[in-house]
Amino acid sequence: MAPNKSQPIIVIKKSGGHGGHHGGAWKVAYADFVTAMMSLFIVLWLMGSSEKVKKAVAGYFNDPKGTGSMLGTTLTGTGEVISAAASDSLQKLKSKLEEEIKERKELQKLSKQIEITITAEGLRIELIEDKDGTFYQSGSAKLSSSGQELLALLAAELKTLPNALLIEGHTDATQYSSDTNYSNWELSADRANSARRLLQQDGVRGDQVTQVRGYADQFLRVKNNPIDPSNRRISILVKNGEGPAPTIKGAKVVDAPGKSVPADAKTSSGGVKPEAKAESRPPVAENVAKPPTPVSAPSPAKPSAAKPGLMERIKGMLPGKKK
After folding, report:
1. Is the separation of the CB atoms in 162 and 209 below 8 Å?
2. Nearest to residue 217, comparing CAs of 167, 170, 177, 168?
3. Is residue 308 part of a domain?
4. What number is the average pLDDT over the span 314-323?
5. Taken in order 41, 47, 48, 52, is the CA torsion positive or negative?
């Protein structure tokens, strides 16, 4: 037999290319380009959007959790963004108040205890107590002479504004007394009310103060020291929105027992408008208790004839006279 010839070994070499369409590197570059274009279009869209849309977007990034809109919880506020016009107006008012306080020698020493800040809710003016009780004596709702002078100065400026006012009272965590009928809750509310009365006495409109709140020690200024004197303070908030709070339509206000009138029939002083008074008539006759109608005594029932017994019926069947 003839010896087997060895088969030749064939080696096929492929030239190393860049893969289909230069491999996958182009995908990364294309993704970067699309991302940049999307960012550009978003910026262009925001630039051409209305102020309402811009505020909504800015408000989300300022406060993603949406907790900054709660009133009375923070000093700075992170909720609704203030418009440029409102911010400029509040800044002017802040500067004017600070200048007037500096010009009065009696109030210069209190400048460190008067804090004026612009928040998302409006202009917040805080009268902060010290250990000696600058504005209120400890445990008292009566304003000192310095407090009265400062509130008179504030009233002279606030009464010229169309903005609504909100007054808050705060205390420290020191227990007021052992009397459960009067606590820090009542004290904080009474202090806020005393400030309201003085402001209105000096010209602030009756409908300009829309809310008076007493927070006791629930919102401390110095949280790590609940008994710090600076936790005792009065806050006057000049709201961003102009004018008093709107009247709720359809609400009923009790005017007298058994009679109610619509809330819009009330005057700003709490009385009833003349046309509302004309309609306030005495209750109609059907609402008045009528005397009971006398009921005649029932006539005595006539005795019914007794049915004849068995013996009487038998006798009736017999002939002869019947007795």
Report:
1. no
2. 170
3. no
4. 62
5. positive
For the segment 39-97, what is each residue's pLDDT rounded down to a tens digit? 999 889 988 888 888 888 887 777 776 655 544 444 444 444 555 666 778 888 888 88
| pLDDT tens digits, one per residue of 236-258 | 999 886 544 444 444 454 454 55
**Burial class of residue 167, CB neighbours in 10 A (0-12, 13-18, 19+):** buried
315 close to 322: Cβ distance less than 8 angstroms: yes
Residue 112 is classified by DSSP as G
Which pair of tokens denotes residue 254? 């009790």
**45 & 138 share domain:** no
Residues 56 and 165 in one domain: no
Q: How large a percentage of the chain has pLDDT more than 90?
A: 20
Tokens linked to 162: 């169309």
CA-CA-CA-CA dihedral for 71, 75, 80, 81, to nearest 10: 160
Q: Say if residue 289's pLDDT is above 50.
A: no
Is beta strand 114-118 parallel, antiparallel or unpaired with respect to 233-242? unpaired
> Looking at the 3D structure of the chain, how many domains does it have?
2
CATH number at residue 238: 3.30.1330.60
The pairing of beta strand 233-242 with beta strand 209-214: unpaired
Domain co-membership, 48 together with 147: no
Residue type, 209: V
Give the dihedral sign, CA 263/266/267/271. Answer: negative
Nearest to 87 by CA among 55, 50, 120: 120
Radius of gyration of the chain (CA): 43
Q: In this structure, what DSSP letter does residue 140 have?
A: -
Shared-domain flag, residues 51 and 199: no
Q: Please tell me whether residues 103 and 39 are part of one structural domain.
A: no
Domain presence at residue 223: yes
Structure-block tokens of residue 206: 């009756």
Residues 71 and 121 sit within 8 Å (Cβ to Cβ): yes
End-to-end CA distance of the chain: 169
